[in-house]
TrEMBL record:
Species of provenance: Hygrophoropsis aurantiaca
Domain of life: Eukaryota
Entry protein name: Uncharacterized protein
Lineage of origin: Eukaryota, Fungi, Dikarya, Basidiomycota, Agaricomycotina
Length: 933
C-alpha cells in the first residue's frame, strides 16, 4: 500500500511539472490505474512490476519534457506518448470495468489474471525502450543546445542523426522472409512490395536490427520515413530535406548527401516510397537522385512500396510481401487478445481477413478493449466488419485510412473512373476476375488489361492462378461504399449478362463442371445480390439462373450454399402460376435436392416440405408428390419407418386423385416402399416391390433408378444372409451401360467389401477398401470420402488392430475439421466409440457413445440413437452395473419400437456397425434373461 501511495504521488507531481498536454494525459491515466489497483484489486502484489514501470515512465517523461521548451521537443516524443496514451487508456478501461462490476455485485475486491498483467508489463517495457533508446539522447542534446545557446566551446561538430528504429516487439512469421531479404541485400538493392498494412515497414525495421546488418553498417543504418507526408506535398527539395534530416547532414544539397553516403557503407531504407514516386513536382529529379545514390559502391538501398515501380537505372530485387501464414496470424492475434475459446473461431476470423497483419492487429485490439468473448467478437464481425477495422484516425488504427492512401494516389487518379469500376467489380466477386473473361465482363473498357495490370502493380489487386483478385480487407473497404442507400448501386449489367449466359450454356451442354468449379463463389454472390433485389418483372429469369446454378453445383461441386435464406424470403404470391410462387417453389426444390445429395438429412426434409407446400399452392401436384416421396426416403434413413410409409401412401394417394400416377411413378414408389419394408423385416414383401420396380426400370432403360434398385436388392440379400445373391446384385451394377460415377463406384466397392467380411474373406475386403481409397479423387462429397475410411476403421476394429483404426479416424477428423458436416462427425464419433469398446477402454467408449448420441439426437437419426443407447447398455453390463444396463436397454427398445425397425435388422445391413457376439446383453434383455441386480 505504501509503494502504491508513493507511486501515485510521484505521478501526480510529475503531471504538474510537464508542459505537454499529452504527457499530462499519460501520467493522469497511470495515476488512475494505480488508484484502482490500490482501492479495488485483490492481488495487489501481482502489480508490483507495473507500479515500477509507471514510476520509471513518470521520471522519463518528466526528464525529457519539463523545462518549458515545448517548441523544441521533437515530434517523435509526441508520437510515442500518443501511442502510450492509447495503450494505458485500454488498461484503465479494463480495470474500471472490473471495479464497476465489483460495485454492482457488492464485492469488496476483484482480481486480474496474471497473464494479462504480464502482457501489460511487456508493452510498458516496450514503450520505455523506445522512449529511452530512440529519443532521450536526442532530446537531451536539443535541451543542452538550447540552454547553452551562444556557447560552442567543447561542443562536437558531429551532426544529429536519426537512430534506426528498434525491432518491432510484435513480429510473427517473418523470419524466413527477413533472411531472404538480408541475403538479397548482399548483392542488390531491394524493394519490398505489398498492399497497405501487409507489414512492409515492420519487416524493414527488423532487417535494420539483424546482427549481420548491424555488423556490416554499424551506425550508418538509416530509415527515411515518407509515411507522414502526402504525395501532393512532395517536391525535390522536400525529398532531399527529409534525407538530410535523417542522415544528420546540415546542408540540404544533393552533393553534401552524396559525399556523406560515399564516406562508408550505408544502408538507406526509403519507407513508403510510393509517396515520392507520385510526387506532385520533381518526380524525375527524385528518380535521378536515387539512381545516383544507388550507383555508389558504399550504398545499399531498400524500399518499401505499394507499387512495383523503381528508377529505371537501378538494379533491384523485387520481393513481394505475402500475408501471414495461419499459424503466425494466430500468434499475432492471441498475443494481443488472449482467450481460452474455441480456436476454430479465431481461424475463421483470420481467414476472413486473408491473414492481413494490420487487420489482425486492429481486430485483436478492438476485441481486447471491449472484453469480448470469441462468440461476441464473431457476432460483431459478421454484423459490422468494416467498422471494426476503423477504430482511429491514423493509418495504424484505421484500415480505411491505409487503403485510401492507395486509392487517392495520383497513379490511381490517372487511370480514371474505369479503374474504380474494375475494383468495385473485383471486390464484388469473391473469386476475382478470370483473365480470359475480362473483355466479356468489361466490354466498354477497351484498355481493360492495362488497367488490371496497373492495379496489380499498385498492390490493390494480385494474380491468383488465372484470376485477378483482392485481399479481403481491401475488398471489404471498397464494397462497403455500396451498403449505403445514398451511394449509387453497383453497375452489374455486363457481369450479369455474361454469367447468366454462360450458366445457361453449361447447363444445356455439360462441360463436366470445368466452368462452375472455378466460378461458383462468384455466381453465388451475384445470385444472392439479384435475388435480394428481384422485382416481379425479373423474378423468373433470376430464379431460373438460380436453379441452374444449384443443379450444376450438385453435379460438379457439391457443397452447401448461402442462398437458402434469401430464397426463402422471396415473395410467394397468392394464386397458381404466380411468377413469384412458381419461381420460389423451383428454387426451394433445387435446394432440397442439393441438401439430399450432401446427406444434410434434416435440412433436406425441411426444404422438401417447403417445396411441397409451394407446389400444392401452385397446383403442380406431380412435383408435390415427388417431394413427399423424397422426404420418405430421408425418414427411412433416419430410422423413422412409420413416417416414411405414411408419406409414401400420401404420395400414392395424391397421384391417384390427381390422375398423375404413371408406371414410372409407381415403380419409383415401389422402390422407396421396398426400402421401408426391408427395415420392418418384411423381406418377401420387399423382394416383390423391388423386383417389380426393377422390371419397369429395365424396360424403359432408366439406368439411374435401376442401379439404385439393384443396390437395395443386394442389401435385402445381405440382410437375409444370402451373400451369393448379394454379391451378384452388387456386381451386376458394374455392368450397366451408363454405370457409373466415381462416387457410385466407390459405394459399390464398399458394399462388396461388406459381403466379403460376412463370408470371412477379410483380405479380399481389405483389397476392395484399399481400391476404393485409391479411387477417392477429391471430387466426391465428404460423406462418401469419410465412409471409405469409416469402413476401414470398422474392419481394423473387427480384426483387433485398434491403433490402425485410430489412424484412420485421425485422418477422418482432420478432413472433417476443414470440410465436414454434422452427419459425418456423428458417424466418426460412433465408430471411434465402437473401436474403444472393442479395445476394452470402457470409460472412453462411454464418453464417445454419449457424445455420438447427442449428435444423432440433434440430427433426429433414431437408427443410430438406438445403436448408441444399446452400446451404453453393453458397457454398463460389462462393468456389472445391471441396473444401468437394464435402463439403457429399455430405452433402446423404446426407441426401436418407435422407429418400427425389426430388431434383427438394426445391425446386419451394409453399414458395419454391429457389436461383437460377446456383447450379448441386448439379446438377453429382449429374451427377458438379463438380471436386474
Amino acid at each position: 500500500m505504501a509503494v502504491l501511495t508513493n507511486a501515485i504521488s510521484a505521478l501526480d507531481m510529475a503531471k504538474e511539472l510537464v508542459p505537454l498536454d499529452i504527457a499530462k494525459g499519460v501520467l493522469s491515466t497511470l495515476s488512475s490505474i494505480l488508484t484502482v489497483v490500490k482501492n479495488t484489486m485483490q492481488n495487489k502484489e501481482d502489480f508490483a512490476e507495473i507500479v515500477s514501470r509507471c514510476d520509471q515512465i513518470a521520471k522519463s517523461v518528466e526528464r525529457s519534457t519539463c523545462g518549458g521548451f515545448t517548441s523544441e521537443i521533437n515530434p517523435r516524443i509526441t508520437e510515442i506518448l500518443d501511442e502510450l496514451k492509447s495503450f494505458v487508456d485500454g488498461i484503465e478501461k479494463t480495470l474500471k470495468a472490473k471495479e464497476q462490476r465489483a460495485l454492482t455485485e457488492r464485492a469488496f475486491s476483484v482480481s486480474v489474471d496474471q497473464g494479462s498483467i504480464a502482457k501489460w508489463k511487456e508493452q510498458l517495457n516496450f514503450f520505455l525502450q523506445r522512449y529511452n533508446n530512440e529519443l532521450i539522447v536526442h532530446i537531451a542534446v536539443t535541451v543542452d543546445r538550447i540552454r547553452g545557446a551562444g556557447t560552442t566551446e567543447g561542443k562536437s561538430d558531429e551532426p544529429d542523426r536519426e537512430p534506426p528504429p528498434v525491432r518491432p516487439p510484435m513480429f510473427f512469421g517473418r523470419d524466413a522472409l527477413v533472411q531472404d531479404v538480408v541475403g538479397s541485400l548482399n548483392s542488390q538493392h531491394v524493394i519490398l512490395v505489398g498492399p497497405g498494412g501487409i507489414g512492409k515497414s515492420s519487416i524493414a525495421k527488423a532487417i535494420l536490427n539483424e546482427d549481420s546488418i548491424v555488423a556490416r553498417f554499424n551506425d550508418r543504418r538509416f530509415f527515411v520515413r515518407f509515411d507522414d507526408i502526402n504525395a501532393s506535398q512532395v517536391t525535390f527539395d522536400t525529398f532531399i530535406g527529409l534525407i538530410a534530416g535523417t542522415l544528420g547532414v546540415r546542408s540540404n544539397r544533393l552533393g553534401s548527401i552524396t559525399i556523406f553516403l560515399g564516406a562508408g557503407n550505408v544502408l538507406l531504407v526509403f519507407d513508403n516510397a510510393e509517396t515520392f514516386q507520385d510526387a506532385a513536382t520533381g518526380a524525375d529529379r527524385i528518380a535521378e537522385a536515387i539512381e545516383e545514390f544507388g550507383a555508389l559502391p558504399t550504398v545499399t538501398i531498400m524500399f518499401t512500396s505499394r507499387n512495383r515501380r523503381v528508377p529505371m537505372n537501378l538494379q533491384c530485387t523485387i520481393i513481394d510481401v505475402p500475408a501471414l501464414g495461419p499459424s503466425a496470424a494466430r500468434n499475432a492475434f492471441t498475443h494481443t487478445y488472449h482467450t481460452d475459446g474455441f480456436p476454430g473461431i479465431i481461424d475463421k476470423l483470420l481467414s476472413d481477413l486473408d491473414f492481413h497483419p494490420l487487420s489482425i492487429n486492429i481486430l485483436a485490439h478492438v476485441a481486447r478493449e471491449n472484453q469480448w468473448t470469441l462468440e461476441e467478437l464473431m457476432r460483431s464481425w459478421e454484423g459490422q466488419q468494416t467498422r471494426l477495422l476503423d477504430v482511429g484516425d491514423g493509418k495504424l488504427q484505421s484500415l480505411s485510412v491505409t487503403i485510401e492512401l492507395s486509392l487517392t494516389s495520383s497513379s490511381i487518379q490517372r487511370l480514371g473512373a474505369d479503374a474504380r469500376h474494375v475494383m468495385e467489380i473485383a471486390a464484388f466477386l469473391p473469386q476475382g476476375l478470370n483473365e480470359k473473361d475480362l473483355e466479356h465482363l468489361f466490354p466498354t473498357i477497351p484498355n481493360i488489361h492495362s488497367i488490371v495490370g496497373a492495379l496489380c502493380r499498385l498492390s490493390l489487386m494480385y494474380r491468383k492462378k488465372d484470376a485477378y483478385t483482392m485481399l479481403s480487407p481491401i475488398r471489404l473497404h471498397i464494397s462497403s461504399a455500396h451498403k449505403d442507400d445514398d451511394v449509387p448501386s453497383l453497375d452489374l449489367t455486363h457481369v450479369r449478362a455474361y454469367y447468366y449466359e454462360q450458366l445457361a450454356q453449361v447447363d444445356g451442354e455439360d462441360d463436366e463442371g470445368a466452368w462452375i468449379t472455378t466460378e461458383d463463389a462468384n455466381l453465388e454472390r451475384l445470385l444472392a445480390h439479384d435475388l435480394s433485389r428481384a422485382t416481379p418483372m425479373d423474378m423468373g429469369l433470376i430464379c431460373q439462373a438460380c436453379c441452374q446454378f444449384i443443379r450444376q453445383l450438385r453435379h460438379h461441386k457439391p457443397r452447401t450454399t448461402s442462398l437458402r435464406p434469401v430464397i426463402l424470403r422471396l415473395p410467394e404470391g397468392n394464386r397458381s402460376r404466380d411468377a413469384g410462387l412458381h419461381s420460389k417453389a423451383d428454387c426451394a426444390y433445387a435446394l432440397a435436392l442439393l441438401a439430399d445429395h450432401l446427406v444434410n438429412v434434416t435440412e433436406s426434409i425441411n426444404l422438401y416440405a417447403t417445396a411441397k407446400r409451394l407446389f400444392v399452392l401452385d397446383q403442380r401436384h406431380d412435383l408435390a408428390a415427388l417431394c413427399l416421396e423424397y422426404m420418405a426416403t430421408q425418414y427411412t434413413w433416419l430410422g423413422k419407418i412409420s413416417i416414411a410409409e405414411d408419406m409414401l401412401r400420401d404420395a400414392l394417394t395424391m397421384r391417384q386423385e390427381q390422375h398423375i400416377l404413371s408406371s414410372e411413378d409407381e415403380a419409383r414408389i415401389n422402390l422407396y416402399l421396398g426400402q421401408a419394408m426391408m427395415h420392418r423385416g418384411r423381406l418377401e414383401e420387399t423382394r416383390v416391390l423391388l423386383t417389380s420396380a426393377r422390371r419397369h426400370f429395365e424396360d424403359v432403360n432408366n439406368t439411374d433408378d435401376l442401379s439404385e434398385t439393384m443396390r437395395w436388392q443386394g442389401e435385402v440379400e445381405l440382410r437375409s444372409g444370402n451373400y451369393l445373391a448379394a454379391r451378384r446384385d452388387f456386381e451386376a451394377r458394374f455392368l450397366l451401360p451408363t454405370f457409373m460415377s466415381n462416387a457410385d463406384r466407390l459405394w459399390n466397392l464398399i458394399f462388396l467389401s461388406v459381403v466379403e467380411v460376412r463370408e470371412g474373406n477379410i483380405s479380399e475386403a481389405q483389397k476392395l477398401l484399399e481400391e476404393a481409397s485409391a479411387r477417392v479423387s477429391g471430387g466426391e462429397s465428404i460423406y462418401t470420402t469419410c465412409n471409405v475410411l469409416l469402413h476401414q476403421v470398422a474392419l481394423a476394429s473387427d480384426r483387433g488392430d485398434f491403433n490402425l483404426a485410430r489412424y484412420f479416424l485421425r485422418r477422418i477428423f482432420v478432413e472433417l475439421a476443414a470440410h465436414g458436416g454434422q452427419t459425418e462427425l456423428a458417424l466418426a464419433t460412433y465408430y471411434s466409440a465402437r473401436n474403444e469398446l472393442f479395445a476394452q477402454d470402457y470409460q472412453k467408449a462411454r464418453d464417445l457413445f454419449s457424445r455420438a448420441l447427442k449428435y444423432f439426437d440433434e440430427l433426429s437419426d433414431m437408427m443410430f440413437q438406438v445403436k448408441c443407447v444399446r452400446a451404453l447398455g453393453e458397457i454398463a453390463l460389462l462393468e456389472k452395473d445391471f441396473t444401468g444396463a437394464n435402463m439403457q436397454f429399455a430405452r433402446a427398445k423404446y426407441l426401436r419400437d418407435e422407429t418400427g425397425i425389426h430388431p434383427d435388422f438394426l445391425y446386419n445391413g451394409s453399414v458395419p456397425s454391429r457389436l461383437k457376439a460377446s456383447h450379448g446383453g441386448w439379446k438377453l434383455f429382449l429374451e427377458g434373461h438379463l438380471p436386474s441386480s
